[in-house]
Each structure stands twice: as structure tokens, then as C-alpha cells.
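Morning run. Coffee first, then this:
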Amino acid sequence: MEAYFLDFANLLLRWLHVIAAVAWIGESIYFVMLDNGLRPPKAAEDQRKGVFGEMWAVHGGGFYHNQKYASAPEKLPEDLHWSFWKAYTTWLSGFGLFVLLYMANPGFYLVNPGSDWAWAANLSGWQANVVALLFLLSGWVVYNEMCKRISPNMERDGLLSLAVAVMMVVVAYLSTQIFAGRAAFLLTGAVMATAMSANVFFWIIPGQRRMVKAMKAGETPNPIDGKRGKQRSVHNTYFTLPVVLLMLSNHYSFTYTHELSWVIMSLFIFAGALIRQFFVLMHAGHLKPAYPAAGVALILVAVWVGAPTAGNATAAATASTEAAGGEEAPADTEMVAQGEALEEVHAIITERCVSCHAQNPEHAGFSAAPAGVILDTPEQMLRQVDQIKQVVASGYMPLGNITQMTDEERAKIAAWTP
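And here it is:
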């Protein structure tokens, strides 16, 4: 019953997270589009009032006239719209999900026993949780310090962007070395998501509050607040598409089970940023198809890097031949051999997989079989043959190899032909 309530909490928290993220990202993309789509005001009265730019739009059967003031307007309304709760709710709900799913079962989801770094491979559950929290905090601290030191007055933002790009490659590499594959992708996305929310909390909103306070006092706002807010908002918009992809990646094991998963991750991050750049420029009236073309090219490179190699299939075939004594089974014993292979594979699955993938899972973390995959009987297993062979051969399952499936057992499953 406890696992059931945890699953239900997971569902509700995930729903909240998606709703908040859609609202935040949608509003962010809208305001970037609005800011880049502004045109100089045509009316002399608007110019006199200090209107910096305007945009006319039609939507939902009505017409809209948006105006941006470069300085304080003549009158600032009390019901000024602020954009921050969506950002905070997205991060808080996302962190709650991370605690519920990953930190509650760190030995299952976080620890990377196959890491080349002995200290990472031998982390205990609580140690993995501490390292994960430090990883998130360090990501924000390093990013924030780079912004303050490289381009404190927003005069070297190009160099800063390059530095942030290098930082994300380093983060991708470190995450895949320290944490289990799925957690590595999630934590890399969480580093960017944390920076996005922290940008809002520590820089964008406080700067806007100081600007509003100065306007209401009849003073001239400090222009550095507006520039810094714009800088961090620009970073947020380029983080958006990569973060969404990394949060979805845990459904696709080919991304994070590959030995070069950090390269695949980096390619996706840059592809998302390039595609976002196309839309940013398009809203400013500049069509640059080279950006999405470059993004697609990087995705194709990721497809090439992550593609299964022929060597895997050869190894599986060799293992199958060796298991049969180096000879093909005679035709009259083929059915017997298939039956024996089925029994052998089902015995492995029962020992290594059924604690989770059962009608009534024994593992405390699940109230129902993950992804609805039930493997209690040979008949149920036969309905999932292709999926079983793929996730076992890739090393994705069992997660974190918590049941200690051996390489020999993986080879038998990969070579198994029902």
C-alpha cells in the first residue's frame, strides 16, 4: 500500500511539474518573441511618452497592441504582472520528483557501479544523494561565477556563451562518470534547470523590483539591472530546449547506455540551442536556416555515434554457437533446444528481473510492474522478446544492475532466438 501511495504522489507531482513547466516555458518563449519582434513606435505621442518599441498582433479573434518602455512610463499600475511563480513551481516540483524517485532509491537509480572511477562505483546510497546535491549546487555556483567574472557589465556575452557551452560539456562528462546513465542525463538537465530558476530568483526578479521601486520613487532605474536581467533571460531561453530533451531522455535507453553517452548528450544540448537560435532570430525578422540545419546535423551525428555496432550482434552469435558446443543443432532436436533455451532464459529473468517486473512486485519501490512489463511466466516473457533483448544487451536493465546480472547471462539473452 505504501508503494501505491508513492506512485500516486509521483503521478500528481509529475503532473504539477509538467503544467508549471509548460506555463513557464510558454511564457518565456512568448516574451522573447515579443522582445525581438518590437518595432520603433510610429505615433509621435508614443515616442514622447518614452515607448521603446511596439508590436501589433492578432490572436483568438482580437487585436493586441504591445508596447515596451525604455524608461519609466508616466504611470505605473499597481496590478503589474510578474513572472516568477511558474519558474519556482517548476523547479520545486522537479526537485520533489527527483527526491521521490531517485534519492529515495539511490542505490537503484543514482549509483553507477560500472564507473571507471572507483570512488563513484563504490558510493553508498546516502553518499550518492550527497554527491547529487553537491553536483546541482556546484553547477549553479560555477555558472553564476562565470557570469559575474567574464561579463559583469554584459559587454562580453559572446565569450560568456562560449564558456557556458564548454561548462555544459564538462557537466555532461562528469555526470556520466559519476552517476548511473539515466540519472546522469537527468542531473545534467537539472543543472541547467537549476540555473534557469536561480537566474529568476537571484537576478531577474530582484533587479526588476529595484527598477519598479525606483520608478515609483520618481528616480531613474539603474540600467545594469535591466541589462543583467536580459542577459540571464537570454541564457534561460537557450537552455530551454536542451532541458526538455534531457528530461525526456530517461524513456530512451539508447541515449544513456552508450559508452559515449556524454558525447550524445552534448550534441543534443548544442542542437537544441542552435534550433532555439533560429526562432529567436526569426522573431527579430531574420531567417537563418543554417541554424536549424546545423542543429539537425548534430542530431544526425548523435544518431551515428549512438548506433548499435555490428560487433554486438557478432558477439551474441558467437556466444550462442559456443553454448551449443560449436555446432548447429540437428533439425530433429531443434524444438527441444528451443524449449531448453526458453527455460534457461526464463530462469535468468526470474532471478534478475521478476522482483520488479511481476504482477505483484517484491521490490519495495514499486506497487506495479514498471512500464506495465510483467514477466512472471514464459508466455508473458515471449510477448516482450524484442524489448527484453534490447534493454538487457545494452546494459540498461536491470537498472544499476542492482540484481547483479552477469555478462554471461546477458550474452545468453541477447543470443536467444525463441
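Strands lie at 51-59, 62-69. Good start to the day.
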